[in-house]
Design goal:
Elements: H1 2-37, E1 39-42, E2 46-49, H2 56-81, H3 85-93, H4 98-124, H5 127-134, H6 137-149, H7 155-170, H8 184-207, H9 213-234, H10 244-271, H11 274-281, H12 284-295, H13 302-317
Antiparallel strand pairs: 1-2
Helix pairs in contact: 1-10, 1-12, 2-4, 2-9, 2-10, 3-9, 4-5, 4-8, 4-9, 5-8, 6-8, 6-11, 7-13
């Protein structure tokens, strides 16, 4: 019994670490999107960015470029990391597991929705506000898990969610809170993205009980790619005079962070439940702020540092649960 408890604790701590690493990847991803949409000074050395106008069509374009790189990248790696990947996908394609196929495709639809909505929000409101609103998804995940699986959130988890949201709010720079900068459409997009991601996390929890993270993630990525192509074909623009080289480079870096982040997120969900994983992932705004401070030299004041400390300590509190 003691050995099982120790093994469970080690598995949980590994899950925590994997989810935190995934959050760092997503933080890098958010900063890359910010650079692609708005000109920034990188490491205080040179200026770059602002390659496309922040709107829905360009958000779809960035998602498409990212997935064009992620899908083949993962296809090349899956057989080396998890050899039965194509065999598992073939079983799903032959409808041997029709429910799992629907869950995997559903994961791609939800991924497409939350990425496009988040990108659009980042383009319409200050990035810190967009990411903070998006990071309300642990509350939605807890509610959906409670409703669907009967996983009633504990008092500790409810308290941690509240502290993380408070700390995330404090990380928003005061000069970003001017009401003139707000776009209600951008705010609604961020919240809608949060809800879509919560559904994605709950759907992943169901799927990963029987399906390995590699085939599930690859099908989700491929579905997102197909939806991006279809959407842009239906709603195409006339402006093809875009700086394709920097967009490709930014998309390549974004693809790497997406691949690593989503894969680690799904491995983490497999080790700890979706609600707990989502609460840990709520450190995303803090990590995004920290990465932005390092890469694009955004200043941090004492209030933001306090917010970061609150989030870090709150996530640490979760390790006390069931210990």
């Amino acid at each position: 019994m003691k050995s099982d408890h120790t093994s469970g604790s080690q598995s949980k701590m590994l899950g925590f670490l994997i989810i935190l690493l995934a959050s760092i990847s997503f933080g890098c991803q958010n900063v890359i999107v910010r650079i692609l949409f708005r000109e920034q000074t990188i490491l205080g050395i040179f200026e770059t960015g602002g390659f496309v106008t922040p709107n829905l069509q360009n958000s779809l374009l960035l998602v498409l470029l990212r997935m064009l790189l992620v899908v083949p990248m993962m296809a090349l790696l899956v057989t080396k990391v998890y050899p039965p990947t194509w065999q598992d996908i073939r079983k799903l394609g032959n409808l041997e597991q029709p429910r799992m196929l629907l869950h995997s495709i559903g994961g791609g639809v939800l991924m497409f929705l939350f990425l496009v909505l988040l990108y659009m929000s980042i383009g319409l409101v200050p990035t810190g506000i967009a990411v903070t609103l998006f990071s309300a998804y642990p509350a939605f995940t807890a509610l959906f898990s409670w409703r669907l699986f009967g996983n009633r959130p504990t008092f500790l988890r409810c308290g941690v969610i509240g502290l993380i949201l408070l700390g995330s709010y404090l990380t928003i720079s005061p000069n970003q809170t001017n009401i003139d900068n707000y776009s209600w459409f951008g705010i609604i997009s961020a919240v809608a993205s949060s809800v879509a991601y919560a559904f994605y996390a709950v759907n992943a929890q169901v799927s990963l009980k029987t399906l390995h993270p590699f085939p599930f993630t690859w099908i989700s990525f491929t579905t997102t790619l197909i939806l991006s192509v279809i959407t842009l074909l239906i709603w195409h623009g006339n402006d093809m005079q875009l700086p394709w080289l920097p967009l490709f480079i930014g998309s390549l870096i974004s693809a790497l962070t997406t691949f690593v982040g989503n894969l680690m997120q799904n491995f983490g969900i497999r080790l700890i439940d979706a609600t707990l994983a989502s609460i840990v992932s709520a450190s995303n705004p803090v990590l995004t702020t920290a990465i932005a401070w390092l890469v694009i030299q955004e200043s941090l004041n004492s209030l933001q540092l306090l917010g970061m400390m609150i989030v870090i300590l709150s996530v640490g509190l979760l390790s006390r649960e069931h210990s």
